[in-house]
Amino acid sequence: MISDSYCRYILTAIESIPKPCTEVSVEYKIPIDTVYRRMQHLRDEKLVHVSDMINNDGKKYFLYKSKISSTHATFDNKLTVTIIYS
Question: How much is the pTM?
Fold first, then answer.
């Protein structure tokens, strides 16, 4: 997931402030379908925290926040990636 550029953009967008998929799509100019699909993969891998909210119109929406605080990659005849969770 971390090697996918869309996932990296999404994780960057939701690093410090929880956001809905629509806001991430507009902010990073990523097609909304791609954001939803990648967000589902990130949820499946437990890399994002999801909270649901209800707006004034009574509609339910979801906010996503990255669980990753940092990553570290090393290459010494093999690639090793360490993920630090917040």
Answer: 0.83
With a CB cutoff of 8 Å and minimum separation 6, the contacts of 30 are 6, 9, 10, 24
Amino acid at site 22? T
**pLDDT range class, residue 45, cuts 50, 70, 90:** very high
End-to-end C-alpha distance for the chain, whole angstroms: 18
For residue 59 the two structure tokens come to 């509609």
Q: Please determine, for residue 58, whether its predicted confidence score (pLDDT) is greater than 90.
A: yes
Classify residue 57 as exposed, middle or buried by CB count within 10 Å of its CB (0-12, 13-18, 19+).
Answer: exposed
Dihedral of the CA atoms 61, 33, 83, 76 (nearest 10)?
180
Query: What are the structural domains, with CATH classification, of the chain?
Result: 5-85 (1.10.10.10)
Report pLDDT for 72.
87
